[in-house]
């Protein structure tokens, strides 16, 4: 069984994290599949919107640390890097349904989504500094723009978890939905998007994302510092402690 499930429904490509035994932690192979499904969906005129979600009441607990650390340099061909820049290039709208853990990339990828819904169990966290790293996916630019510098500093520098109601108050998500209704609500919204004139939807999205080139530059800058920090003694100690706790 694949750790990434994909299903097309009336113009909506549903992409689901499916590694519940590891809280949907993302491996490099999962990143490869995610990118492939997004690129295929972009090229398919029958697909007009994406919906991303997680299996077993969990969005994703972030990177599979052991897998991530054992797989080479963070260059342009690295699966996680390709996925991040694929998010930046998406023309079609993406909706997210978040239940349970949304850690690291589980929160930063939401900043690239167009509509985000979560249930009461959702727990967001940006723990990069805690691991001696820096943010990725353009979060160091997108988050201050979205919530203001002071709040972004609190979320990124302290790296503490926050709940769905806080995310809603900050404008990071569109609504808090009951756990049983979450997926159906997000799917209904996705189907609404898929039913609208595709060119108008995509052009409107493009017009709203006016700082794309600046964001791309910021993502490259983050990647440079992330890669450097990943090799640091600080990060090595933090990851060893993390892996020791998780065993």
Automatic annotation (TrEMBL):
Pfam families: ECH_1. This is Enoyl-CoA hydratase. Its main location: other. PANTHER family: ENOYL-COA DELTA ISOMERASE 2 (PTHR43684:SF1), PTHR43684. Keywords: Isomerase, Peroxisome. It is found in: Peroxisome. SUPFAM superfamilies: ClpP/crotonase (SSF52096). InterPro entries: ClpP/crotonase-like_dom_sf (IPR029045), ECH/Chromodomain_protein (IPR051053), Enoyl-CoA_hydra/iso (IPR001753). CDD domains: crotonase-like.
């Amino acid at each position: 069984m694949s750790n990434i499930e994909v299903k097309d429904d009336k113009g909506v490509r549903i992409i689901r994290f499916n590694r519940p035994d590891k809280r949907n932690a993302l491996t490099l192979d999962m990143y490869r599949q995610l990118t492939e499904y997004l690129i295929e969906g972009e090229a398919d005129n029958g697909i007009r919107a994406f919906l991303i979600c997680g299996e077993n009441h969990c969005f994703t607990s972030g990177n599979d640390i052991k897998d991530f650390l054992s797989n080479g340099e963070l260059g342009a061909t690295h699966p996680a890097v390709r996925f991040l820049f694929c998010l930046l290039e998406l023309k079609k709208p993406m909706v997210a349904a978040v239940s349970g853990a949304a850690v690291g990339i589980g929160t930063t990828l939401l900043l690239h989504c167009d509509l985000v819904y979560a249930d009461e169990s959702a727990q967001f966290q940006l723990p990069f500094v805690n691991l001696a790293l820096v943010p990725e996916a353009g979060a160091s630019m997108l988050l201050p723009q979205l919530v203001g510098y002071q709040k972004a500093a609190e979320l990124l520098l302290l790296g503490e978890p926050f709940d769905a109601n806080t995310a809603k108050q900050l404008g990071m998500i569109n609504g808090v939905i009951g756990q049983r209704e979450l997926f159906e609500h997000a799917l209904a919204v996705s189907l609404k998007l898929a039913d609208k004139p595709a060119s108008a939807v995509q052009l409107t999205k493009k017009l709203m994302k006016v700082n794309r080139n600046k964001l791309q530059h910021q993502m490259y800058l983050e990647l440079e510092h992330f890669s450097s920090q990943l090799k640091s003694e600080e990060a090595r100690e933090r990851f060893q402690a993390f892996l020791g706790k998780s065993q």
